[in-house]
Amino acid sequence: MVMKIDRDASRFKQIVRGKIRDNLRKYVTHGEMIGRKGNDLVSIPLPQLDVPHFRYGQNGRGGVGQGEGEVGQPIAAGDPDGEGQGQAGSDAGQHVLEVDISLDELAAILGDELQLPRIEPKGKANINQDKVRYTSVRRVGPESLRHFRRTYVEALKRQLTEGTYKLADPRVIPHKDDRRYRSWESVPEPVANAVIIYMMDVSGSMTDEQKEVVRTESFWIDTWLRSQYKGLERRYIIHDAAAKEVDEHTFYHTRESGGTRISSAYKVCQELVKAKFDPAEWNIYCFQFSDGDNWGEDNRAALAMLKDSLMPQSNLFCYGQVESPYGSGEYYRVLDEAFGADHETLILSEIENKEGIYDSIKKFLGKGK
Questions:
Q1: What domains are defined for the chain?
Q2: What is the average pLDDT across 173-198?
Q3: Rounded to an integer, what distance in angstroms lies between the CA atom of residue 89 and that of residue 91?
Q4: Which residue from 2, 277, 286, 335 puts its CA 20 to 30 A from 186's CA?
Q5: Interval 26-37: pLDDT, tens
């Protein structure tokens, strides 16, 4: 019986994952998967999937074979003569089931559907570093690694066997043969550090709708890169005419009303990399989101920083231009004319609305860098 239940549960999970794959574009563009990220799980509402379940009646009404009743009398809850609320409907209801999958599974589905290549980290990613893991217990070892609980248990077992343990005087005295020590083994792990630096224009022309696009796309970028690196740092920079580093919440919930100087964000990014993320040791991913507005005289300074500093130091520098009713969209053209759309490090993407997130992710991550 248990094996049959396990088989049914496994089959159901396959059906769920199939539904996720079939509807991935919808989930990506509408952000339906971003409901809960606690304990590395993402809650995914899947419509039109129903499973058998128990329905409990009301207490005090008795059960089958209990209390008063006649043969053939309905046992369902509710008064057959009572009046219901509202009009009877003609359509079937929508059943919604929340299914939890791990971020690793989600990243695998994303990679398969978008045909994303595995990332080839730079730096020391191909160098293995031995990491010590304590995996067992043995009878010999240094005193600094003595396992006190296991030693106590062995001494207690010996005294009980010998009959020397006294309840009136419950002392446990370990002998030499009772001592146990933690044992270790060396496990090679690749050395690969990665950081994502997000930059976003928060001037008055960037509305809440544009920020929602950025938040949704950033989630999927995080999900994929986390599956490629064991340790992943994230940093956030916001700017209008001036820029500063902020935390994640501030990044997504700040709106200013000033002008726009993109070079101010690049300068903060330069200083951050110089202070904390040595390009020789870190795989650096920069993702900039803007509506394309920039003070005209600032373009020259911004392009110089990109060419001389940020692009040579980064695995990828991705610029996503989110269409806004207030933005000019001019900066995309400036970058395209300066570096070309097929640059090795710089990747440009125009995100018209939420429907454009899917293709933008594929464009940003499709090179496997």
A1: 1-49+95-115 (no CATH), 128-188 (no CATH), 193-365 (3.40.50.410)
A2: 79
A3: 6
A4: 277
A5: 766 665 544 444
What one-letter code names the amino acid at 251? F
Which residue pairs from 246-255 have beta carbons closer than 8 angstroms and sit at least 24 positions apart in sequence? 251/198, 251/200, 252/211, 252/214, 252/215, 254/202, 255/202, 255/204, 255/206, 255/208, 255/211
Q: With H, G, I as helix, E, B as strand and everything else as coil, classify residue 316.
A: strand
- Number of residues in the chain: 369
Q: Is the pLDDT of residue 48 over 50?
A: no
Alpha helices in 66-164 (DSSP H): 103-114, 148-162
Q: The whole model's pTM is what?
A: 0.62
Per-residue pLDDT of 70-123, as tens digits, reads: 666 665 555 555 555 555 555 555 444 455 666 677 777 777 777 666 666 665
Angle formed at CA 45 by CA 39 and CA 48, multiple of 5 degrees: 145
Residue 221: CB atoms within 10 Å: 21
CB 135 within 8 A of CB 184: yes
290, two tokens: 């803007």
Distance (Å, rounded) from C-alpha 46 to C-alpha 223? 20
